[in-house]
Amino acid sequence: MFLFNGGRMLVRCRAHHPPEIPTHNDLNRIAPIDTVIRIGTLEATACFAAELSELTAPSGWSWHSLRQLFDELPHAELEAAGRAAQLLHWHNTHRYCGRCGRPTEDSFVVRSRVCPECSHQSFPRISPAIIVAVIRENRILLARGPHFRPGVFSVLAGFVDPGESLETAVHREVREEVGIEIERVRYFGSQSWPFPDSLMTAFFADHAGGDLSIDGTEIIEANWFTVGQLPSLPSRASISRALIDRFVEQHPDEC
Ligand SMILES: [Zn+2]
Fold this sequence. Notes:
binds zinc ion, five-stranded mixed β-sheet, six-stranded mixed β-sheet, alpha+beta, 255 residues, 18% helix, single chain
């Protein structure tokens, strides 16, 4: 059972163990529970997400943000926790019909909220975003946003606009944020990013022309780095780090 309160998740932390998710047996000590949503199975066990109205964590348990748990939870638990967080967020923000304002109800056919008055139907929302590592010969473009931890640089990222393809969004974001043109955009992989409902799609691209000119708003510092000069990097659990690690693997002589 994935229990949340105000975006934070309940886990038990013990030395030398990954954080533990509460099981049904733990639940008689944890109450009361508001919204409960079935989210699927984890290792053949049915899993649920719920919002807990009581903020005081039971003895031995504590509240942690998903970001805090990102490097600590095993992959399967992290994926299920992200799904739980996204579905709860969607449920909590679609209690009323966006067209006529009446309270919505769960559909029994597909996962959606349906308005009993006007039949308007809302599906779980996923917001696609792109993330791109631009390469110039043996260097990678890394940048800092205004909310990054001090000293940390990462690859460029941004949301896909309505009407855009992923590739169009990659070209536009790079042009807007650092003022350069790119070519040979190639798909790398994707990652669900439940803050609150993004799907990160990651690409490599090559520098095609222009010098760095940062926008000063979304990007406050940007530079080209060789493998030997890399600054502090994002969490190992993020796909942005996977892009940078792949770049490092491709330049073994410069470590
Ligand atoms: Zn309605």
